[in-house]
Design brief:
Elements (H helix, E strand, L loop, with lengths): L1 E3 L11 E5 L7 H17 L3 E7 L2 H5 L17 H9 L5 E6 L2 H4 L3 H13 L1 E6 L13 H11 L2 E4 L4 E2 L2 E2 L2 H9 L3 H8 L4 E7 L4 H4 L5 E4 L11 E8 L5 E9 L11 E6 L10 E11 L7 H20 L2
Parallel strand pairs: 1-4, 2-3, 2-5, 3-4, 5-6
Antiparallel strand pairs: 7-8, 9-10, 9-14, 10-13, 11-12, 11-14, 12-13
Helix pairs in contact: 7-8
């Protein structure tokens, strides 16, 4: 997949099959659109093109957030994660349009003419249920269908995708992760929620009790961190090795307390140095809430139980 960050650098294609959207999460609803996009493109002999936006439009158009920031301003995917997911579906081109207030002020007619027709050369547009575009979200399926002859471009709308009779959306996935419900989030995503961070040096308190951890810091400040608690995760190192792991999100009330929240993974059975390297964890199951124990012995006993439970979840996954 060729990734292009500047519309001025995009090669005019003339026969492109296109979809557009933020695609945050690339969840099962998005995946239905992408599957149809690539199916139509292969049948027509044209390239499959995804148009997306960065930063997320809410970050540009929303008023300055209070602290803590509203949940919907947090991201399910970093831009790199989003691109990697899109590439898995066989997309040929990804056009990332810089989202600015000036771009947001374009009318739907301007977007169609300047991006879909003049920049990309769209022959068919595949869009999701209730997809809107242009200033004040004025453009949509009905508008496109009404004017398709004038544009020389056909349009197809994908029906709403439901999971367990509940509409899938990025917002619902954020709500699930905020509650620590990784089972629901993963079912809606169609994959296990990932978090990638660089391993940094912390206070190394875990080493003193026999449970060393990798302290992760994500470069994307708005990447959503699930609710505080202990999780079974699958960890992948920079070398491509995958390890069963348990992960704690919280303030470590037994050994530290009242500190800033950390994301710390214990790779079960791993021995080595991960400092300054990227580490990706995929959330498989939530084990328990974060809690304060009556001393280090009680904490160590619980960590041993957590490790065993994590292994069981990961073995059966």
């Amino acid at each position: 997949m060729e990734v292009i960050h500047d519309p001025a650098q995009f090669p005019y294609l003339g026969n492109a099959v296109v979809t557009s959207g933020t695609f945050d999460g690339v969840h099962v609803g998005h995946q239905q659109i992408l599957a149809r996009l690539c199916e139509v493109a292969r049948a027509s002999g044209g390239p499959a093109v995804v148009i997306t936006y960065w930063p997320h439009p809410r970050l540009v158009l929303a008023p300055p957030p209070s602290h803590p920031e509203p949940l919907d301003l947090y991201l399910l995917n970093t831009l790199e994660e989003r691109a990697a997911r899109l590439a898995e579906f066989g997309v040929d081109y990804l056009l990332i349009i810089p989202f600015t207030r000036e771009f947001a002020a374009w009318s739907s007619e301007e977007f169609i003419q300047r991006i879909l027709l003049d920049t990309v050369g769209t022959s068919k547009l595949v869009i999701g249920y209730d997809h809107r575009f242009g200033r004040n979200r004025e453009g949509g399926f009905d508008y496109l269908r009404e004017h398709s002859g004038r544009y020389g471009m056909s349009v197809e709308e994908i029906p709403r995708e439901d999971v367990d009779a509940v509409g899938v959306s990025s917002t619902r996935i954020r709500r699930a992760l905020e509650a620590g419900d990784v089972d629901t989030a993963n079912r809606y995503l169609g994959y296990q929620y990932p978090f990638t961070g660089t391993v940094v040096r912390g206070r190394q308190l875990g080493r003193t009790i026999g449970w060393p951890t990798a302290n992760l810091v994500c470069a994307e400040d708005l990447k959503l961190v699930p609710a505080r608690g202990v999780y079974a995760v699958r960890a992948t190192t920079a070398a491509g090795e995958t390890w069963p792991a348990m992960l704690n999100i919280g303030v470590r009330p037994t050994v530290a307390g009242n500190l800033a929240q950390t994301v710390e993974a214990n790779l079960l059975g791993f021995e080595g140095d991960l400092y300054d390297q990227p580490l990706t964890v995929e959330f498989v199951a939530r084990l328990r809430d974060e809690q304060k124990f009556d001393g280090l012995d009680a904490l160590k006993a619980q960590l041993a139980l957590d490790a065993e439970e994590a292994r069981q979840h990961l073995a059966g996954d």
